[in-house]
Design goal:
The protein is an all-alpha fold. The protein has 21 helices and two strands. Among the domains are: 89 residues, Arc Repressor Mutant, subunit A (Orthogonal Bundle); 110 residues, no CATH class. It has a two-stranded antiparallel ribbon with strand order 1-2. α8 runs parallel beside α10. It is elongated. The chain starts with a helix and ends with a helix.
């Protein structure tokens, strides 16, 4: 129901100056945002309790309304009439004041995104340091992904605002912070916008390492959504740029990405060649986590090709470099694949033990797809040993667990963890 302008004007006239200013600055923001006390605190530089009071006052005067009731820290609002707030900020605030408010919003959401990235990917180095002294963290350690996902509208608005205003460093840093959200939730349009705008922003800064980071982000998105040829082009550009800069770490990422593209298009030999390149590069620069993931991927490909000695050597190396299986998804995958390799090599007891150990971890972590895969390995081995009853039981367990495929999930998950 539309609130008459006269009612809005009367409500605004009753506000204290600081609350009026906050309302007007909400009108200065260029797109859809999630309005909460954290955003208000950033816009007008007040503490959280004061910001929460501002929003409740706006609601009491019919200028805002709650849209997501819940615990105090989870309250969300929307403006009753955004055009009214825009009209007032145009009339009362200079363009410099409005621009400064938008800048504070962009700085705040970028800081939050970078902190979320650090919490969600603690083993992955960050290329930017969040300004935690100026903008406090609005979520607990276990709430980073929920917060990012809930603030998608603000992330998109800030991304376009940084482009419009030429805040290029802030723009690519925002995309860098969004990385866990992009790879976990895989929002197609947001990922596409982030990759292209972030890459353009990084190029304008002239920082090669930032440009390579954005190339990696975009290439991962393209591969995740099935645009393999385009992804190969981006990964190749990343690799060439890194080679020119003598950056073994990023050249290895380019080679690793190329390998995934070639494997996706059934070019196993070329994929393995690129993975060997990645391993050599990462060995040289001490990127042990990268070496482990490349060895794991190469081991899986060689296992598919029945090269058991090479597969076993690669998977063993990956397993040895990774943290213990109960703390590392990739280590558990390596253990499961090692178990299958040992079964295929005729080492029945060792293979069965490894598969059951991996299955136990996958069950605990609710990794459905890998549970199904391991149950399939075990069923196949039961058939080899002519235990059809056990084989059928295992296959029935797998069928009960199976779920529809989610294209790109495996690729996004793997590349998200690549340091």
């Amino acid at each position: 129901m539309r609130v008459p302008d006269a009612v809005l004007d009367r409500g605004y006239a009753k506000l204290a100056p600081g609350v009026r200013r906050a309302y007007r600055f909400l009108g200065s923001l260029p797109g859809t945002v999630v309005i909460d006390a954290d955003l208000i605190g950033a816009l007008v530089t007040v503490d959280w309790d004061t910001a929460d009071s501002v929003l409740r006052t706006l609601a009491d005067h019919d200028l805002a309304e709650p849209c997501a009731p819940g615990a105090r820290r989870e309250r969300r609002y929307r403006l009753t009439a955004p055009a009214h707030a825009r009209r007032l900020t145009t009339a009362h605030d200079t363009s410099e004041e409005q621009r400064a408010a938008v800048r504070r919003m962009c700085e705040w959401i970028t800081t939050c995104a970078l902190i979320a990235r650090q919490q969600l990917l603690p083993r992955n180095p960050s290329l930017a340091s969040p300004d935690t002294d100026r903008y406090p963290v609005p979520f607990a350690d276990d709430g980073a992904m929920t917060w990012l996902n809930g603030h998608r509208p603000t992330l998109r608005t800030a991304l376009w605002a940084t482009t419009t205003h030429g805040w290029d460093t802030l723009g690519w840093q925002l995309v860098h912070g969004m990385w866990p959200l992009l790879t976990d939730k895989r929002p197609v349009s947001l990922w596409a916008e982030a990759a292209h705008l972030g890459l353009a922003a990084a190029r304008r800064t002239g920082h090669g390492w930032a440009e390579r980071e954005m190339l990696f982000c975009g290439a991962t998105g393209l591969l995740t959504f099935g645009a393999t040829a385009d992804a190969l082009g981006w990964f190749t550009e990343l690799k060439q740029s890194a080679r020119t800069a003598r950056d073994d770490h990023d050249e290895g990422r380019g080679a690793f990405g190329q390998a995934l593209c070639h494997h996706q298009d059934a070019r196993a030999d070329t994929a393995l060649f690129c993975l060997d390149q990645a391993i050599t590069l990462w060995d040289a620069c001490g990127n042990h986590d990268g070496t482990a993931l490349a060895s794991l991927t190469a081991g899986e490909i060689t296992l598919e090709g029945d090269d058991l000695p090479r597969a076993t050597a690669l998977l063993t190396r990956a397993y040895d470099l990774l943290p213990p299986p109960d703390t590392s998804f990739e280590a558990t995958c390596a253990l499961a694949l090692l178990g299958q390799a040992h079964l295929q090599a005729g080492h029945h007891e060792q293979g069965i033990a490894e598969l059951h150990e991996a299955l136990k971890v996958f069950e605990h972590d609710a990794e459905i797809r890998w549970q199904v895969r391991v149950l399939g390995y075990l069923a196949r081995e039961a058939t080899v040993h002519e235990d059809e009853g056990l084989a059928q039981h295992l296959l029935q367990q797998a069928a009960a667990l199976d779920e529809p495929p989610r294209p790109g999930e495996k690729t996004a998950r793997l590349l998200a963890r690549l340091p």
